[in-house]
């Protein structure tokens, strides 16, 4: 829920309150239910509220705990806040609200920066200590909730979205060459702390940053699961693992029903979202609202999976809603989706999530989503090839399988001097995979996908598109305890049955076999994948705009070749190459970056 913003001055000056107000107002879609500002000394905070827990004004933010000298803003949800509140009461703390925000402040006062170890949920948190001037910045373990940073001499600004920082002004909007290399190499993934803009960074997941009054800071990585076969799981057979995964997922789904408003489910009819619905039905959820989206077919490619979602909805008697989107609606919705992006995102389903979120937000303000299961449980078709690699060969194999194009090919795409002269994307993968804590080649690949790619592509995409309509998306497959369990699970159990084997076995205990064993589906948006007329027209406008010509990122002959045959050029992973290069330019233009 919500969006946060703020500014810290450590040069003796006062924060620019007008800039904090502009940031806060830019976050209005994320928090349509309330607005708050706070300032004291060198720090100012802003907040936009989406009311999910404690709907009264006692839950408003920024929230000040005068007794303990703390003020904080918070985006997300702490699912175990009730249990923590009871524990803290037993330790002598007093509460004036039923909000999870107040629990966060009391937990910080009691445990210091170790308070994050007690939180179960998704969150970006900023806490100000009035007596010391120290500021604490926190991001959740899997990076589900974002926190963007813009540093300049004597000042640090932060916000839940990158466009909010742009609204404040004073941001270096030049392109980061390393980030651009990663964008063109790795499905638009730009790992933290970078963004495509030189002047904006993001706090990495599972990080506590302590900022001192003089501007110095220290970071603490507070969580990283081990991708090894751990002793506590020794002796478990396939059935034991199936049961353990089902128990952990059931707990994760139950946790994410915590709210003072109704919670729905985004239901595609695939294994992951269907499991969520089935487990909620087991919990006794009646009249559960479920939502599916489909698109017109293009070029012989089907645009919906309604037969599967209908099957699950009937089986569990949900209150099911279908949204059918005609192709011309995709093109008209495209600019709104790009405007909602904190960073350029090239996945074809980005517009689908934006349109679906618009519809769902009219019915509920919280949904559960199946995001993350494929990365956590090895569901993609390329994982078996990675598992065959020797440990030392895995970085090369990963790049061959996953990257859009090799480093050498970038010279034919981008003008000279725009990118670094060496393969920075490949080097990032090599360094990440070489870190201790991954036992096999597949373990190293899954760790990279779960803690880097997933964070800065699919999870970010869902957060941005949903929150642009004031819709909170919760992801039970990224429950940190479930991720820890999956990380320790033997690779062969995850790879079984064509991928996600252990999850499929769990699914067979609660779902119709047709749903578990159906061919894997994707969120199809044929109008973008096939570069249908109106979308192509919009792309051509962006690539021929004066801003694109003056920016000069791409070689003219490369762009001309793409535009002459827009549906023939594909990246190594099958993405439309024109869409990838044009989306970056569209994003820059939409956000006023010249």
From TrEMBL:
The organism's place on the tree of life at top rank: Bacteria
Pathway where it operates: Amino-acid biosynthesis; L-asparagine biosynthesis; L-asparagine from L-aspartate (L-Gln route): step 1/1
Protein's name in the database: asparagine synthase (glutamine-hydrolyzing)
InterPro entries: Asn_synth_AEB (IPR006426), Asn_synthase (IPR001962), ASN_synthetase/amidase (IPR051786), AsnB_N (IPR033738), Asparagine_synth (IPR017535), GATase_2_dom (IPR017932), Ntn_hydrolases_N (IPR029055), Rossmann-like_a/b/a_fold (IPR014729)
Gene3D superfamilies in alphabetical order: Glutamine Phosphoribosylpyrophosphate, subunit 1, domain 1, HUPs
EC number: 6.3.5.4
Signal peptide positions on this chain: none
Top class in the EC scheme: ligase
Keyword tags: Amino-acid biosynthesis, Asparagine biosynthesis, ATP-binding, Glutamine amidotransferase, Nucleotide-binding
Pfam families assigned: Asn_synthase, GATase_7
Similarity remark: Belongs to the asparagine synthetase family.
Start and end residues of each Glutamine amidotransferase type-2 domain: 2-214
Catalytic activity: L-aspartate + L-glutamine + ATP + H2O = L-asparagine + L-glutamate + AMP + diphosphate + H(+)
Chain ranges passing through the membrane: none
Stored SUPFAM superfamilies: Adenine nucleotide alpha hydrolases-like, N-terminal nucleophile aminohydrolases (Ntn hydrolases)
